[in-house]
TrEMBL record:
Protein name per Swiss-Prot or TrEMBL: DUF1211 domain-containing protein
Regions that span the bilayer: 24-44, 64-83
UniProt GO molecular function: potassium channel activity; proton channel activity
Pfam family, one: TMEM175
Protein's organism: Egibacter rhizosphaerae
Listed GO CC annotations: membrane
Length: 142
């Protein structure tokens, strides 16, 4: 039998990998790792102010847009992870088509930190929050 093939319950060979296979675990672990990295990258836009203690509150307040962008982006990634986690929890097998779809989802998740940065670059606050959620045809103001 060719490497990478799994056996189904009826003994037939397939490119479907059951929950107890290494291949299934690799898909789940890659997904969790990418979600964790994306969530970690979100916080890099927040700088630790190098100011005296009596000016710390003001310096942190100046970063309010970064904190809001972080919270919105984190909520989006966390929601995607929660849905993905629940999906993987009930999934019995993975196959190449599902793995490809999963990779597309992970690619979109990997772009969330970039979208969070775009949120900060746009005119703050109203237009950027609308752009984060609005369909493309509603983003052409100006």
């Amino acid at each position: 039998m060719e490497a990478g093939w799994g056996l189904l319950d009826d003994g037939s060979a397939s490119r479907r990998y059951r929950r107890d296979s290494v291949e299934f675990s690799r898909v789940a672990n890659l997904s969790d790792a990418l979600f964790a990295i994306a969530m970690t990258l979100l916080v890099l836009r927040i700088e630790v102010p190098d100011v005296p203690a009596d000016q710390l509150a003001g310096a942190l307040a100046d970063q309010l847009p970064q904190f809001i962008a972080f919270l919105l982006s984190f909520a989006v990634v966390a929601n995607f992870w929660w849905i993905h986690h629940r999906f993987i929890a009930v999934l019995g097998v993975v196959e190449p088509g599902l793995i490809a779809i999963n990779l597309v989802l992970l690619g979109a998740v990997a772009l969330v930190p970039v979208a969070g940065l775009a949120l900060l670059v746009l005119t703050w606050p109203a237009e950027s929050v609308v752009a984060w959620r609005a369909p493309p045809e509603y983003r052409a103001w100006g």
